[in-house]
Task: structure prediction
Amino acid sequence: MVPESGVPGSQVLYLTDPEHWSPHAVYQATRLFVSSLNARLAQRFLALVLLPHVRQDIRENRRLHFALFQAMKKAAYKPDAFYKVCCFVGGAPARCCLVCVSDHFVMQRCVPAEVLGGFFHIVIEAW
Result:
């Protein structure tokens, strides 16, 4: 994001062409944006940049690149935004693989119960 330039941050992000970023670049951008943005903007970043990269990597390689896994761990620092993106943006196939990945986060992090309850309720209804 370019501070005080008068250009909205999403336009600046779009100019950097996030569709062609490497997994390592996605990780560094996730670190930057999740730590500095509020929950609503972080949710938007996760939905527009991180989730498409995760889905594409799993689709192409049948596994998740370590840097993208680290990016998802960083994204879990804003649990409300992270789980909203997993539930509402991803379709049913995305939920299946994201449930497996998010299980790791649940085991390692203290996530508010209401956030997790809502997430798993939506996932169970989708099956």
Notes: Residues 1-7 have pLDDT under 50 and may be disordered.
